[in-house]
Amino acid sequence: MRITTFAEPHSIVDDGDTIRNRFVIVVDTLRATSVIAAALAAGADAVIPVAEVEEAMNLYRNLGADIALLCGERGGNPIPGFHLGNSPAEYNTTAVRGKKLVMTTTNGTRAILSASGAAVVALGAMVNAGAVAAAAMGSGMDVTFVCAGTKGRFSLEDVLTAGAIFCAMGASGHRADDLSLLALSCYRHNADDLPGALRDCTHARFLIDSGYSGDVEYCMGMDRLNAVPYYKNGMVQL
Ligand code: MLT
Fold it and tell me: Ligand 1 within 6 A of 149 CB?
C-alpha cells in the first residue's frame, strides 16, 4: 500500500492520486475525532460536521430540536447557546442516544470536510487507532492521513496518532512518503511514554491550562474504542 500524510488540510496536494482514490483517515486527536468516535459509540445516530457556527444553527433549526443537538467549540470552549461542547465526557448515552449532532469545531470539522472528495473517509484518533488501522488494511486501498493541525499549523499529537495507526497497520511492506515515515518514527520513539509525549504537545498544554485535563487523559487512551466513524453524504456514522 502507498501511505501519504498531510500535516494539515491546507497542505493537501491532490494530484488526483493522494485523496480521490484513497482510504483517507482524518485525525484530530485533541479533540474532534476522539469526541466524534465517543459520541457514535455512545449511540448518537450521526454527527454532521460543518465549518461555521451560523451554518450549524441553520441546520439545527431545519432538522428540529427533537432530533438534533448543537455541538462544538471555539477557542476550546463551548459555544454560547449550544447544547454540548467538545469534551468526550459530555457525549454519554443519556445525552446523545439517537440524536443527530450538528458539530462545528475550529479545526477538526473543517479537516473532515476537506477530505470529502476521497473514496472513503474514516476518522482516526488514539482512542480508535487499532480499529481504524484494521479497517484501512481491510480496504486494500492506498491510505492518506489528513491531520487537522491547529489553525494551519502542524500539531504533534495528530502526527503521533498517524504514526500509531500506521504502526498498527504493520508498517513494513508499505510505500510511505516522508511525513508518514517521520510520523512512524516519532510514534515509535515515544511509544514507551505516549502520555508524556502527548501532554507536552502545544494544544494539550492549552487544554490542560484551560481546565480540560480530563479530556486530554481520555483522548490519549489508546484503543479504548472499537468504533470506526465514516464520513459519507454529509454525515459521520459508524
Ligand atoms: C478542533 O477541532 O480544533 C479541536 O477539536 C479543538 C478542541 O476542542 O480541542
Answer: no
Cβ pair 107, 151 in contact under 8 A: yes
Neighbours of 84 (CB within 10 A): 21
Greatest distance between any 2 Cα atoms in the chain: 50
Helices 129-139 and 156-168: crossing angle in degrees, nearest 10, is: 60
**Mean pLDDT, residues 75-96 taken together:** 98
**What is the pTM (predicted TM-score) of this model?**
0.98
DSSP secondary structure code for residue 128 in this structure: G
With contact defined as beta carbons under 8 Å apart, do 128 and 28 qualify?
no
Identify whether the C-beta of residue 8 lies closer than 8 Å to the C-beta of residue 196: no
How many residues in total does the chain contain? 238
Query: How far is the centre of ligand 1, averaged over its atoms, from the C-alpha of 175 (Å)?
Result: 31
CA of residue 150 to ligand 1 center, whole Å? 8
Across the range 58-87, mean pLDDT stands at 98
Query: How far, in Å, from the CA of 102 to the mean position of ligand 1?
Result: 15
β-bridge mates for residue 120, sequence order: 23
Whole-angstrom Cα distance, residue 206 to residue 223?
24
The 3-state DSSP class for residue 138 equals helix
Q: Is 78 in the pocket of ligand 1 (CB under 6 A)?
A: no
**What is the CB neighbour count within 10 angstroms for residue 49?**
27
